[in-house]
Write a structure and sequence with these properties.
Layout lengths: L4 E4 L5 H12 L3 E6 L3 H12 L5 E5 L5 H10 L6 E4 L16 H30 L2 E6 L2 H4 L8 H20 L5 E8 L5 H6 L6 H10 L8 H11 L11 E4 L18
Length: 264
């Protein structure tokens, strides 16, 4: 399938960046958002333009109502596929809210949960009216599938809320042509994981961390992007409402996530 208008939030790095390339190279018209990644967004636009592919990047503060309204005014057309990918984590939220801990917790919920809710509320009616739509909510194995107590509780709460939103939408839209899915990645090699875990490890600690993970490796962002793209095909329609554990099995055994070498 191609020729659709695809909106990907948080598309300047990590999973979002790979999803932008995956959909754009597949023939879709892709628009993506960024906040602090203006330079990365510009590089991605240029990289695809070199291959004759046009994508458009929009500055967007997810969870800020005025920014939501501005984005909707700036979009060149209706959205057929919405990938709610933008999020902050326990370590990266300080880049968005440098204030006290309670303010950072509130920011995580606002950005990770309320922002996607607003986008859904703003875009789904048009999908239903036009007779086509795909919504992919990118949550996390932490909160969406299992609990990881080393992170801020608001982190997992925000991802659990996004999974709940996906399930609620799936029921509400069961008799419409709009499909809804949630994807819960595990330990993906992204800037977010680097900020929260990988960046504070030396070589020995990283080796021990990887050895404890399922399959003894990190997940690559393009692997998750491929799953997201496949969910937007007709073949995936039978999974409407599914919450996919895309963690190499980490969701089944969260104790394998050991940021520090095990004590002996």
């Amino acid at each position: 399938m191609s020729g659709r208008n695809v909106l990907i939030t948080g598309g300047s790095s990590g999973i979002g960046r790979h999803a932008v390339g995956r959909f754009a190279r597949g023939g879709d018209t892709v628009w993506f958002t960024y906040l602090h990644g203006a330079g990365r967004a510009k590089d991605l636009v240029a990289e695809l333009a070199a291959d004759g592919i046009e994508v458009i990047a929009f500055a967007f503060g997810q969870g800020d109502w005025d920014s939501h309204q501005r984005l909707l005014r700036e979009l060149p057309g209706p959205v057929d596929v919405l990938v709610n990918n933008a999020a902050v984590g326990s370590a990266t939220v300080v880049d968005y809210e440098p204030g006290a801990a309670h303010r950072r917790s509130a920011a995580m919920l606002q950005i990770n949960s309320v922002g996607p809710l607003w986008l859904v509320q703003q875009l789904v009616p048009g999908m239903v009216a036009r007779g086509y739509g795909k919504i992919i909510n990118v949550a996390s194995v932490g909160g969406g599938i299992a609990s990881f107590p080393t992170f801020d509780p608001a982190d997992g709460m925000s991802k659990a809320a996004l999974v709940h939103l996906s399930r609620q939408l799936a029921v509400e839209l069961a008799h419409t042509p709009v499909d809804v899915f949630a994807v819960c990645p595990g330990a993906v090699e992204t800037p977010m994981l680097t900020a929260s875990v990988l960046g504070r490890m030396d070589g020995a600690a990283r080796a021990a961390f990887l050895a404890a993970l399922p399959k003894q490796r990190l997940i690559e962002p393009d692997e998750v992007a491929d799953v997201i793209a496949w969910l937007c095909t007709d073949s995936a329609a039978i999974l409407h409402g599914a919450v996919l554990d895309a963690s190499l099995g980490l969701g089944l055994a969260p104790g394998m996530f050991q940021p520090e070498p095990a004590a002996h």
